[in-house]
């Protein structure tokens, strides 16, 4: 009985050892002030940022989004990855495929596409800042040389991380998108599954 209890304790403790928390990136004074205006509350451990063994099998520098799991992986060397929780497109607006990062922007302006304005006439262009839906950073995605109009970006709704609630973009907690932004190189490959 004692051996079974010990084995069970080891099995239950093991998953905690597989996930290594990653410290928050350094922030500028403006980043810290604006991000404080979008309180994140308690982060569900399932969607927290961790260093893990790479589950994707992709090359280092690749971003992989697993939409069903609501997880984004940034692949590192030595078969490791950084895992982030995300919000994905709801069923009507979700997408999958391969793209590349063609532009990166801090506190980007938001210019909603015409299709979105048609669906929701109340949306309008907005300067970058804490109320902006794109949040602290944005990675702009292209298919070849064509802008897909999809982004990986921060959010002003961190409580929706882990849900299918966007119009197709991949949303991240602002502190997480800053961390990813600092890691991603030009023309990084993005795979959305």
From TrEMBL:
Gene3D superfamilies: L,D-transpeptidase catalytic domain-like (2.40.440.10). Pathway: Cell wall biogenesis; peptidoglycan biosynthesis. Keywords: Cell shape, Cell wall biogenesis/degradation, Glycosyltransferase, Hydrolase, Peptidoglycan synthesis, Transferase. Residues 61-193 form the L,D-TPase catalytic domain. It comes from the Bacteria. Pfam families: YkuD. The active site is at residues 153, 169. The keyword Transferase applies. Belongs to the YkuD family. This is L,D-TPase catalytic domain-containing protein.
């Amino acid at each position: 009985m004692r051996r079974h209890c010990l084995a069970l304790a080891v099995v239950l403790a093991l998953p905690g050892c597989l996930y290594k928390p990653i410290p928050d990136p350094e922030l500028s004074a403006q980043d810290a002030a604006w991000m404080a205006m979008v309180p994140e509350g308690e982060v569900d451990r399932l969607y927290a940022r961790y260093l893990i063994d790479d589950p994707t099998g992709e090359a280092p520098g690749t971003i992989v989004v697993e939409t069903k799991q609501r997880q984004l992986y940034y692949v590192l060397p030595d078969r490791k990855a950084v895992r982030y929780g995300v919000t994905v497109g709801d069923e009507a607006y979700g997408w999958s495929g391969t793209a590349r990062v063609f532009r990166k922007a801090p506190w980007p302006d938001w210019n909603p596409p015409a299709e979105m304005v048609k669906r929701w006439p109340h949306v309008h262009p907005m300067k970058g800042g804490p109320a902006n839906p794109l949040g602290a950073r944005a990675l702009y995605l292209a298919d070849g040389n064509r802008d897909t109009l999809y982004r990986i970006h921060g959010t002003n709704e961190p409580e929706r991380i882990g849900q299918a609630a966007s119009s197709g973009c991949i949303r991240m907690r602002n502190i997480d998108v800053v961390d990813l932004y600092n890691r991603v190189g030009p023309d990084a490959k993005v795979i959305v599954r």
